[in-house]
Amino acid sequence: MIRFEDKVVIVTGAGSGIGEATAKRFSQEGAIVVLTGRNTDKLKRVCSELPSSKALVIQTDVTDRESTKNMVDETVRHFGGIDILVNNAGMYRAGDLLSLSLEEGDQVLAINLNGVTNCSYFALPYLLKSKGCIVNNASVSGLGADWAGLHYCVAKGAVVNLTRAMALDYGSRGIRVNSVCPSLVLTSMTERFGDEILHQFNDRIPLQRAATPAEVAAAITFLASEDASFINGVNLPIDGGVTASNGQPHFN
């Protein structure tokens, strides 16, 4: 299945987990993939598995506007435009309002929320030209609250509503904006929890297991494709039935 032949796709946080799986899935479907993130070693490892003529690594800190603008400018210089932006970069830090410092809370908000607005701001002029689309990585923790992750819930909740607002603002101009809202996903971040905690999470998911990064990547590429041409402003749960069962949301 080749849905993205020579489409230029930016994937933030592409060095591991969902971002890595997403970059690979787009590449398998013919896209030119720009892999961005802060850790160039991880990005280069992923890039080495993609066709060299259709992949580019650009070190980027999405919380830094100059860095983000440079990433967009470099993409356009190399490939002439942008067709799809996947705002995937994010982080999780456990804690309630008082257990994290204000600076730690600001960092969670900066990466998970400001990173999305920064990348979207600089990419939008080119997406308007290509009639492209944006897919954000939100979370079921943005659809409802979760314990011991206040700043993450706040940031992802903002991404959920940002997705809706941008879909309204730019749909008439040919740009679709959607998000995926994963629950527990088997990434390096969640693997640190240990088997006992992961088992507790799995017990609360109707499918009784976590998602794989590839399963989330499949949803992202669907939303970015022409197969989803009339889907706009949707925050799609990828959660094994957690939200359908009125269960407690979990972070990705």
From TrEMBL:
InterPro entries in alphabetical order: NAD(P)-bd_dom_sf, Sc_DH/Rdtase_CS, SDR_fam
PROSITE patterns: ADH_SHORT
Pfam assignment, any one: adh_short_C2
Family named by the database record: Belongs to the short-chain dehydrogenases/reductases (SDR) family.
NCBIfam families assigned: PRK07231.1
Name assigned to this protein: Meso-butanediol dehydrogenase / (S,S)-butanediol dehydrogenase / diacetyl reductase
Originating species: Photorhabdus luminescens
